[in-house]
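Ticket reopened. Same input as before:
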Amino acid sequence: MSRSFGLPEFVYIVAAIRWTLLLSLVAFVGGGLVGFAVAILRTTQSRILRLLTTGYIQLFQGTPVLMQLFVFYYGFAVLFDMQVDAWPAVALAFTLYAGAFLGEIWRGSIQAIPRTQWEASACLSLDYLQQLRFVILPQAMRISIPPTVGFLVQLIKNTSIAAIIGFVELTRAGQLMVNVTFQPMVVYPLVAALYFALCWPLSLLSRFLEKGIDANLGVKRPL
Amino acid sequence: MPILALNGLSKRFGSHVALDDVSLTVEPGEVVAIIGRSGSGKTTLLRCINGLEAPDGGEIVFDGRRVERSRADLRALRREIGIVFQSLNLFPHLTVERNITLGPTIGLGLSLAEAKRRARDVLRQVDLEDKLAAAPLQLSGGQQQRVAIARSLAMRPRLMLFDEITSALDPELVGEVIGVLEKLAAEGMTMILVTHEMGFARAAADTIVFMHQGRIWEKGPPARLFTAPVTGELRSFIDAILPVTPGITHAAS
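Engineering reply: fixed in the latest deploy. New output:
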């Protein structure tokens, strides 16, 4: 006997959004910190640091998120010799995944700032960190907003992959409700609509932020 | 004592020799105009003086002290030497005022109030006091270059370098920038300019330096250099620019 799809099932699915959001947030904040460090290190003079950070980015960009997830999940299980909670493995995997992509996006944004901006600020006796802080990063930030938000949208949608190892977030909650109601054509469109409801406002926000900054610069695009 | 002495400066980019044994002294208050064809090493010379390029050989002596290539030395040097570039490179995300106060507050460690006073002073010097709150990209190219000059002046440099600062401007905007340069020269600012504005070079410079193939080919006061060039290279250079530069007469022709 299967249950029909009613309010409790609906509420169960909607409530699972919090795990999708939390995972996305952890990955975005953690990945943001990692990515920022990587972006800065990749633009420094040190060969070793550039090599290490490039290797990290290539590794995480060149392998599927699912494999990264498996490696961390089963890796943790083997290391700690027991059934582990999915949370730490999932959080770490998505953080490193996000760090690689954000690092690359932000490196590109920093390097898109003309060399003359570095030179002009150096000639005002600013040191490297001051140049970054006052001149380069504020401009790089503006460039990086659309790709960063674009990646955040990807990240939110990709957290659904965590469903495969049994982490209960939006997609997994949907699967569970399909299992009990046998109504995939009700449940999955609903799940998809909920993802859309999360991601669409972000795209709007991105456009809004860009416009605000353009107005500050006193220009219409392009910069 | 000269404020700046270059002794045997050389610089190569790969196999290309950009500077070849360049020696030059500049006295306080002197206005030096560097002329020459493109690729003759003018810009490289200027960029070596404030450390944007590292020379391969020779030495730079500023105010009696040899400049080393340490970060601290370069930072100290840039407090004393200002530069304005050909490309318009104000900081587009900052107001005109912040463009100007950034160096004095962050680079020199002055208070914001003092830096703002300087900003008003230097904007008055370039006649753009009303643009204090403007965004750089709202300004014309000529105005942007004048703000760039003001930004450099706010550091109270003892030597100013100008690298073809009118070359990227529409012709009708060149005059206002030249006007500012003339005023600075008249006020006794020590300056080295790379320029194609021969009328200005002739009128305002104490010394003309003609560069060719990375070397100082000929050097002297404008009256002599423009009217009685010694070398064939300078003569042909002057002949080439003469028809388009009013105000310069060629005695030899």
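Chain A has one domain: 7-217. Residues 119 and 131 of chain A are 9 Å apart (CA to CA). Please confirm and we'll close it.
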